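Reopening this one. Same input as before:
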Amino acid sequence: MAEDITQLVGDISPYVTAAVAAYGAAVLDKAKDESAEAGVAWGRKMLQRIFGTRDEHDAPAPVRDLADRPDDADLQMTLHVLIREVMRQDAALIQDIRGFLAVARDSAAPVATLTIIASAVDNAQQAVQGHGYQSNTFHKSSE
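Same output, byte for byte:
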């Protein structure tokens, strides 16, 4: 189950990161403009389902921090860890996010190019393939 959640968080990463980049910490504010590009809008819906709707000042710290520096891979990873922890506690949330992701993939191309570099040492190397280093790059589709 933990591997499924980790994969799901990785799959939604381009959407939620683009939503934070577009809306900033106001991504969770229900009253904000709804006219964003489809992929960004799906990322926003995912984040609102995960954290609830709230004022930007009440957004979780990883959302606020990433809003200030959306290209920071460490801040992206911090948000991923928080999302994974929230999902581990709510099976219904996991199903909802899987449904959102399926529709988002059908309705919009991936929203950005995002590179995540993860490194691990000692026992944590089992978490990544190879020699404790894994690099994943997500590209916007040209379709």
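So the earlier flakiness isn't reproducible anymore. For the record, The helical segments are 2-23, 38-51, 61-68, 73-88, 91-107.
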